[in-house]
Amino acid sequence: MKSFALVRADDPAKVRIALHDLEIYGDIQFSTSPRCIENDYADALLVSVMGVPLRSKCNFAALVELSNNAGTAISRLKKIHPPAHVVIISPKHHVFEEITGKFQNYPEYDRLFNQKGLKEAHGILDAGKKNDELVNN
Question: Residue 35's beta-bridge partner residues?
Answer without folding.
Answer: 63, 108
